[in-house]
Amino acid sequence: MSERPEKHSLTLRGHRTSVSMEAAFWEAFRKLALQRGQSVNALAAEIDQSRAAEVGLASAIRVFVLKSLTG
After folding, report:
1. What is the band of 2 on the pLDDT scale with cuts at 50, 70, 90?
2. Angle at 15 between CA 11 and CA 23, to 5 degrees
3. Residue 1 lies in a domain
């Protein structure tokens, strides 16, 4: 079962960018942002700021989601 990535636009510190992830990751990411009392853009900016330069933003978000859900 494969799911095609969905592209969504985000604003990170005033800069627009787009991120492609599967719908399940977008849904989990939105829920995590809500639980933390943050907007999706704010949480994405936090992840973006802490990721290594060679790691893509979509990958960093996916790993964040997985780590958050698995403890």
Report:
1. low
2. 35
3. no
